[in-house]
């Protein structure tokens, strides 16, 4: 194993067209990715991390757009649960996104941005592109795949559709399919984007972006990532530090100001059309349907893969019951699986925040 840790940002163009679940193919697909840690000579120490909806490949180090630390820097790095002095970590921007991988903002064959002419994509398409990336890197079998939220969907999809590519699967705060409530929240967000006059049917790349609609979409989504307990503790009904009698439609409450900041800052780094495409991919995701209706059948080929599933007691977006459904399916095919529900006050975002018990689980399972 290597004893040094390095980080690099790269991009490859896939040699072959990417086949999509829609029946179409996407040629010239570019996949942007980050690596950290040295790859062992026998390539046995590679870990692929799948990012969530609004994440990207910048899992460690400074984000080139926001200047902030990588989105999982507390989990990945030298001496951390995913130790880059031992493992070679890869994180790729999903197809359909907007941080270097091919997506709606990319140029099509006509030299113009795809916009809404970009083909419909699925979670399985995203994973398929990343398996082609591994082929390009000459990595046949991964030490582990890891992901939370939409990243967890990709981890489960990888196990179901490419069971020989990973020895271990760690899926955190995720689900095997979206509920009607999940779909409803996403549709509300999509409608906010499409109601923005600047959206113009998706053809906004030569003008003003639909930032107001995208900000509202992000605000609505962000509420689902938090818990009532966490919001109450952090904000309660506290007013901003100004004259509380100046009532109106400014951000009177601290929680309002917080959400508006989340929405506005998001527009600096994300593409509205990508948000439409990726949320739709998450809504389409249904491992049971892919396997003919029975979730257990999705994992028939993964009996030799080790699984670890983690949920949080305050996560009402992807609940412990959702995770147990996956556990029962894995038990049905006798796949080795461990499962734990952790207590944390942060809701769905707990997998990104300071939860020492999660660190212990990840450290133990990865090692």
Automatic annotation (TrEMBL):
This is Homoserine O-acetyltransferase. The active site is at 149 (nucleophile), 315, 348. Residues 46-352 form the AB hydrolase-1 domain. Its EC number is 2.3.1.31. The keyword Amino-acid biosynthesis applies. NCBIfam families: homoserO_Ac_trn, PRK00175.1. It catalyses: L-homoserine + acetyl-CoA = O-acetyl-L-homoserine + CoA. It is an enzyme of class 2 (transferase). Substrate binds at residues 218, 349. It is found in: Cytoplasm. Signal peptide: none annotated. The keyword Amino-acid biosynthesis applies. The gene is metXA. Its main location: cytoplasm. HAMAP family: MetX_acyltransf. Transfers an acetyl group from acetyl-CoA to L-homoserine, forming acetyl-L-homoserine. Belongs to the AB hydrolase superfamily. MetX family. Homodimer.
């Amino acid at each position: 194993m290597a004893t040094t840790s390095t980080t690099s940002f790269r991009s490859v163009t896939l040699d072959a067209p990417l086949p999509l679940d829609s029946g179409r193919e996407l040629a010239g697909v570019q996949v942007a990715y980050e690596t950290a840690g040295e790859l062992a000579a026998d390539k046995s120490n590679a870990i692929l991390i799948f990012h969530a909806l609004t994440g990207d490949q910048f899992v460690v180090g400074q984000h080139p757009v926001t200047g902030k630390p990588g989105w999982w820097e507390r989990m990945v790095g030298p001496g951390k649960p995913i130790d880059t002095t031992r493992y070679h970590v890869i994180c790729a921007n999903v197809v359909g996104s907007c941080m270097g991988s091919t997506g709606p903002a990319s140029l099509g064959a006509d030299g113009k941005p795809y916009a809404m002419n970009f083909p419909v994509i699925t979670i399985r398409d995203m994973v398929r592109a990343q398996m082609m990336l591994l082929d390009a890197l000459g990595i046949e079998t991964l030490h582990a795949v890891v992901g939370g939220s939409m990243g967890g969907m990709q981890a489960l999809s990888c196990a179901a559709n490419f069971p020989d590519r990973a020895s271990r699967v760690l899926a955190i705060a995720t689900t095997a399919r979206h509920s009607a409530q999940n779909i409803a929240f996403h549709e509300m967000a999509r409608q906010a984007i499409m109601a923005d006059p600047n959206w113009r049917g998706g053809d906004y790349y030569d003008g003003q972006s639909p930032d107001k609609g995208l900000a509202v979409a992000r605000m609505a989504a962000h509420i689902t990532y938090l818990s009532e307990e966490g919001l109450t503790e952090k904000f309660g009904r506290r007013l901003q530090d100004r004259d509380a009698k100046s009532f109106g439609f400014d951000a009177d409450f601290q929680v309002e100001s917080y959400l508006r900041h989340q929405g506005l800052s998001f527009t600096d780094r994300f593409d509205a059309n990508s948000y439409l495409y990726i949320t739709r991919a998450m809504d389409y995701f249904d491992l049971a349907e892919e396997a003919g209706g029975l979730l257990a059948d999705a994992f028939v080929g993964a009996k030799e893969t080790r699984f670890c599933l983690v949920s949080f007691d305050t996560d009402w977006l992807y609940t412990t019951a959702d995770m147990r459904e996956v556990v029962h399916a894995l038990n049905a095919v006798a796949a080795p699986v461990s499962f734990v529900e952790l207590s944390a006050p942060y809701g769905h975002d707990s997998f990104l925040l300071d939860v020492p018990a999660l660190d212990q689980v990840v450290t133990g399972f990865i090692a």
